[in-house]
Amino acid sequence: MKKRNLVVLALLVSSSMLFANGTKEGQSSSASGKQVRLTFSNVTSQSGKDGGELFKKVAEEASNGTLLIDLFPDNQLGDDRVVIETTQFGDIDIGVSSTSPIATMYPDFYAFDAPYLFLNPADAYAKLDGEIGQKILDNMSSIGLKGLGFWENGFRDFTNDKVPVKVPSDVKGLKVRVMENQVHIAAWKSWGANPTPMAFTEVFTGLQQGVIDAEENPLGIIDANKFQEVQDYVSLTQHVYTPYFMVMNLDKFNSLTDLQKEAIMKASQASIEYQRSQSQKYEGEITKKLIAGGTIVTEVSDAEKAQWRQLAEDAGVYDLVAEKMDHPEFLTEWLK
Predict the structure, then answer these.
(1) Which CATH superfamily is 157-240+283-335 part of?
(2) pLDDT in tens, 228-268
(3) How far out from the chain centre does Cα 279 lie?
(4) What is the pTM of this model?
(5) Selection from 321, 265, 308, 53 nearest residue 148 by Cα
């Protein structure tokens, strides 16, 4: 409740400043209808911020100026879970979050903890934008949210200071830092590693001092935290794919005019395509940077990924995920 009150206070202050400045947007009206100002809470990644900027541009233009989007990037209004809860309450209109922190609130998001659910970005996009992905978004109405679409957070990759990793036998016995996540721990055990939950703030020191041998994260996090300074090998295992998702307060969406609703959906689609392309661009730049700096970057083929997935299946990891979901048939269908 304290967090929510802080978010509300931040919104009130920011709104007061916008109107006090007497912006033309805030004072004008459109021939197409009354203007509506929407608060958009965004994430910290650069690709996410790029996507948010495009969303604002398209929504405002497509609504003939009747929608005004106020962007709050860098999780200014709270962490992922606070943002989504506050969007449910209606104090934030549009929110973006990673799926993992919201799975306890919306259990079908546990699917995204399943290893090798997607084999590459194109595979992920096809499935997320397909029938099941749309059902997952549509079902968010049950918790008061309008699902707008999936952005890309990214694949998790593997770093260590001992060997280039391609197949599960390469990680046997390695102490791998993982999140405190039952599914992730079970998966790494199935691959023969020794999963070691550890606070993220302790990972660099743990690697440097040899307390752990390896860690796994998206390339952006690996680079931003300079793990390559204490890890010789980065393997593009792409073992878990985590999307961002965009949602809007359902009552707020339903209160809009047809033109405004169309503008929101048009902006959502445009931002999805752009954010994903920006995410891929930044990952490519990071890969080149790692190689130029002397890090050994190893690609993993689809056939090699199949070995990881089979071991996870044999160990019951997918059964564990399905038990947590409201609609385990979604997972079954994607795994096919």
Answers:
(1) Bacterial extracellular solute-binding protein, family 7 (3.40.190.170)
(2) 999 999 999 999 999 999 999 999 999 999 999 999 999 99
(3) 11
(4) 0.86
(5) 265
Question: CA-to-CA distance for 325 and 335, rounded, in angstroms?
Answer: 14
Joined together, the tokens standing for residue 213 give 């041998």
Please choose, from the candidates 244, 222, 220, the residue with its C-alpha nearest in 3D space to the C-alpha of residue 128.
244
What does the alpha-carbon distance between residue 187 and residue 310 come to, in Å, rounded to a whole number? 11
Could you give the CA distance from residue 84 to residue 89 in angstroms, rounded to a whole number? Answer: 9
Segments making up each domain of the chain, as ranges: 2-153+242-280, 157-240+283-335
In this structure, are residues 294 and 231 in contact, taking their beta carbons and an 8 Å threshold? no
pLDDT digits (tens, 9 = 90+) for 89-116: 999 999 999 998 899 999 999 999 999 9
Distances in whole angstroms, Cα of residue 20 to Cα of each of 12, 16, 24, 30, 39 = 12, 6, 11, 20, 17
Any bridge partners for residue 299, and if so which?
A: 236
Long-range contacts of 122-131 (CB under 8 A, 24+ apart): 124/152, 124/241, 124/243, 125/276, 127/334, 128/243, 129/272
Same fold, 2-153+242-280 and 157-240+283-335: yes
